[in-house]
Write a structure and sequence with these properties.
The chain has about 475 residues and is of the alpha/beta class. It is built from 3 helices and 33 strands.
């Protein structure tokens, strides 16, 4: 029996070996053919599925490439429109509108080294400019008269994809820029007591003071250990300064007659320039609603009139914060601003219902430090303004570190140890005294922004971008 069992197992094994072999017929060959047919069907299905997957993968890869090129082309266009508008704002024009295009063309040829800017008829053309060594694509541009303004169109290209942006520019003549050479521009008299100080970070002249005050003849009242590192100027020819204690001006103590070499009266009177804050309004795309306390972040917000919010806790503000009048807005705790705060201008004499109050610690960085993202693209090209609040009173009771741009308000009030570094001029329009007491101090740093702050004017006829006309177009 053992012998037969072994023989049977051998037969079965040999039978299995014959399956599918040509010329051999074995038991179960009909089933074997069915297995072969099924195998072929599965093979065909697998090959077809592989083809579909390969096609799908190729399509997905191409879509990814197209999206990357589209994004890169948009960024190239944004780089171009930002770069060109920044250069154009610095070009002083003369003559009439017909001459502006050729004057801009000549100036851009000098500023954009290696780029042959040219005109054909009344249209200016900027040939392709490579961005980031070619890795960021390229942009080209053209500018021509369009109604009362000028139309700038910039096209970004990456690979086989292009994106075009347009913006209108308007010719404007503005206030002389020499007034902004002063660190402090005042409509009222200057009144410093205690250890209050005005300082220049890089040079004493950065802290120079000018006042238009003429409601009385006492232009300056300085007592205690008040210290001003720059000269002080009054437009009132009959003005005088009251000095007592250990006051110093431009390094000279009030006990020295040399101090009067740095206190000047009868300077030419100028109208203090008020900003046009409406240029920032198009960026405030989100209307404030809901809670404003407890570590919240707000981006490009508009605060409607009579809202009177209090931002408390660890608040972060990004982009434009546009405040309508009337409003009393309080910022307490640790406030972080990257961008600019601006307000409507209700005009003089309305500070009773229009106030901005800062308590605690405030950090304010300029718009150029905003992320390089589409919603901030045009805004990043308007550096130099931090808080522009004409018609509002601005109160500080805490330290604000470094403020990335100009401060402007109808009235300023500083208490206790309030103070910090301001990277731009401080402008106070009202006729009430600009008062600082205690250990309050202001340090002016003009190293980053030597030009006229945005929203103000520069003294020459220039082409200024109209931010609310910025848009993507199809060509």
């Amino acid at each position: 029996m053992a012998h037969l069992a072994k023989k049977h197992r051998a037969f079965v094994f040999s039978e299995w070996l014959t399956v599918g072999r040509p010329g051999l017929k074995a038991p179960g060959s009909k089933n074997s053919g069915m297995v072969l047919a099924l195998t072929m069907i599965f093979l065909v299905v697998a090959v077809s599925l592989a083809g579909v997957l390969l096609s799908s993968g190729s399509m997905g890869l191409q879509q990814s490439v197209n999206q990357r090129e589209s994004h890169q082309a948009r960024l190239a266009a944004e780089s171009g429109i930002g770069h060109i508008t920044k250069l154009v704002r610095q070009i002083s024009l003369n003559g009439d509108d017909d001459a502006y295009v050729s004057q801009v063309s000549e100036a851009l040829n000098i500023a954009m080294v290696g780029t042959s800017v040219y005109t054909q008829g009344s249209t200016l053309y900027v040939p392709p400019v490579v961005v980031e060594g070619g890795e960021g694509g390229s942009f080209s541009a053209r500018m021509s008269k369009s109604g009362d303004n000028f139309l700038l169109i910039v096209t970004g290209v990456s690979g086989g994809t292009s994106r075009a942006l347009s913006m209108e520019l308007a010719a404007s003549t503005t206030t002389g820029s020499s007034v902004f050479e002063n660190g402090f521009l005042l409509g009222g008299k200057l009144q410093l007591t205690g250890n209050a100080q005005f300082k220049g970070k890089n040079d004493p002249s950065e802290a120079q003071v000018f006042t238009n005050y003429d409601a009385g003849n006492e232009s300056f009242k300085l007592t205690g250990n008040a210290k001003l590192e720059g000269d002080i100027h009054s437009a009132n020819p009959d003005g005088y300064a009251s000095l007592s204690g250990n006051v110093s001006v431009a390094g000279q103590l009030c006990s020295s007659s040399a101090i009067w070499d740095h206190i000047h009266f009868g300077a030419p009177s100028v109208e203090l320039p008020r900003p046009d804050t409406s240029i920032f309004k198009p960026y405030a795309t989100n209307t404030l609603s809901g809670p404003t306390s407890g570590g919240r972040t707000f981006t490009n917000i508009r605060i409607p009139a009579n809202t009177n919010p209090t931002f408390s806790g660890n608040t972060t503000l990004n982009g434009v914060i546009y405040i309508e009048s009337p409003n009393t807005v309080k910022f307490s705790g640790n406030l972080k601003i990257t961008g600019v705060i601006v307000t409507d201008d209700p005009g003089p004499g309305k500070t009773g219902s229009n106030k901005l109050q800062f308590t605690g610690n405030t950090t304010a960085k300029g718009v150029e430090e905003l992320p390089d993202e589409p919603q901030y693209a045009a805004l990043r090209n308007l550096p130099g303004a931090a808080i522009l609040a004409p018609g509002f009173e601005m109160k500080f009771t805490g330290n604000f570190g470094t403020v990335g741009g100009a401060l402007a308000a109808e009235k300023f009030t500083f208490f206790g140890n309030a103070g910090g570094i301001v990277k731009g001029p401080v402008i106070s329009y009202g006729s009430e005294p600009f008062s600082m007491t205690g250990n309050a101090y202001l340090t002016i740093d003009r190293s980053d922004y030597e030009e006229v702050p945005p929203g103000f004017t520069s003294g020459a006829t220039v082409l200024s971008p109209l931010m609310n006309t910025y848009k993507e177009i199809r060509e």
